Amino acid sequence: MGRIALALGEAEPPAGLEQRIMARLALAAPGDTAPAGRRRTFAFLRSPAWGIAAVVLVLLLAAGNVTQWARGAPSARTAASPGLDTIILVGVNDAKGAYGTVVLDAKDNGGVLAVRDMPRLDAGHQYQLWLVRGDERRSGGVFSVDDDGYGNLLLSIPRDFKGFTGIGISVEPKGGSPAPTGARVAAGKL
What sign does the CA torsion over 140, 144, 149, 151 have? Predict the structure, then answer.
């Protein structure tokens, strides 16, 4: 996402753009010369009743936010939409600054992982995602990251997904391992 803004080169604005913007702003300035009907369109908003209504609305929104905050911070697992679960992964050990997000769709037995700021590995190693249930570790797939530490993975989740309690990422030999053998670098709870 951060690179999107840099994807296009700089461009000169069209000739006269500044003058057109300033002319439109001048129409909204006090003493504008817009037709009388156009000036009166929003005149009713200057009424004290609308000011009171706006203050009441702001107070209601603030009270709602305080109520939500008092109930506690949201957990790492939140419902992104019906049927989708979002799990936040936090970097550990040699990848403390890394983080990631997994979105799971248990209905379709699929999901997607996106990580950021993961250390780049040598050519003989890859990261492997693990689904955790008790002592069981089930592979969710292997992936690599680019020079900036970004990586992603489409994953299949097992049909018997119920009972899994966590997700972890470890460093494994290229192509992955049948069970975790390398250092754990990220973890999250389901």
Answer: negative
